[in-house]
Amino acid sequence: MTVSQHVAFIGLGAMGYPMAGHLANAGHRVTVFNRTPERAQRWLSEFEGNLASTPAEAAAGADAIMICVGNDQDVREVTTGPEGALAALTPGALIIDHTTTSQALAVEIAATAADNAVSFLDAPVSGGQIGATNGVLTIMAGGTDEAFAAARPLMSSYAKSLRHMGPVGTGQLTKMVNQICIAGLLQGLSEGIHFAELAGLDVTGVIDVISQGAAQSWQMDNRASTMIEGEFDFGFAVDWMRKDLGIAIEAARAVGAAVPVTELVDHYYAEVQALGGNRWDTSSLIQRLRAGEKRP
Fold it and tell me: Nearest-5° angle of CA 241, CA 245, CA 246?
């Protein structure tokens, strides 16, 4: 049986909203904070819990807090800012950061947390909004064995796969590998679908048959049909993917790893932004091909 804990969830975006809901449905006492109060109020109308007006208020008395916000600076603001959660946490509490950030940020926040006798886990997620909604995310975590063991029962509320990758920062490095791989997959899928369109093939039929072979991927299974239809008003936004790829490219340079395809796809995403696709799903890479296409 799940042991009920007092937890706070900070950031109710496309991912955080359902993740916090899974915690409430699992029987935990959940207090939520979101920068846009209206979204937090909506969450409260769907799930049992409490609403806080600041991250510090949300964290007061909590055994653990989960963070799922936008970028490095957002994490700093909600943890160590003037109304940040860290100062309100009691010694022995746990911070679980699900935001995709730089490795340096994870190390920085972990050190500050340790000074306050608070544990920290960098725990970025993969699986998209669908995975968050269905409670089947994949989590790659960095931190101590003790922090991961304490976090595991909570994270199991919304994840199907949890892996402790090593010390603080290794979760973020693993997420960078994830985003590097996704970028190449989506570009390849975009080129394949676009080629099939221009060649006059039954594109749905093409995807159906090749998805049964070596070309199969999560992106093909979950995004090919909407790419064919030109639907991108959902999922992980191009703006956020560019943020993630920028972090990965910078880290690759630091360790001396060549990522030429990732750099190229990042440039292609800039072209998608120029088309007005800042908030389109990442599968919208195909739109830059369609914008410049030449049909027979």
Answer: 115
Share of the chain above pLDDT 70, in %: 98
The 8-class DSSP code of residue 12 comes to -
pLDDT number for residue 293 = 76
Number of Cβ atoms within 10 Å of the Cβ of 182: 22
DSSP letters for 85-98: SGGGSPTT-EEEE-
- Residue listed under structure tokens 């730089």: 102
Domains, in order of start, for the chain: 6-168 (3.40.50.720), 173-291 (1.10.1040.10)
* Residues taking part in catalysis: 175
Average pLDDT over residues 31-48: 97
* Mean pLDDT score across all residues of the chain: 97
Angle between helices 218-229 and 170-198 (to 10 degrees): 50
Confidence at residue 158, expressed as pLDDT on a 0 to 100 scale: 98
Beta carbons within 8 Å of 256's beta carbon, 6+ residues apart: none
The pair of three-digit structure tokens given for residue 76, joined into one six-digit string: 């700093």
Residues forming beta bridges with residue 32, ordered by sequence position: 9, 51
**Tokens standing for residue 162:** 């949890």
Amino acid at 13: G
- The per-residue pLDDT for range 52-76, each reduced to its tens digit, is 999 999 999 999 999 999 999 999 9
Give the 3-state secondary structure percentages of the chain, helix then strand then coil, rounded to 5.
55, 15, 30
Q: How confident is the model over 138-152, as a mean pLDDT?
A: 98
Q: Is the pLDDT of residue 1 over 60?
A: no
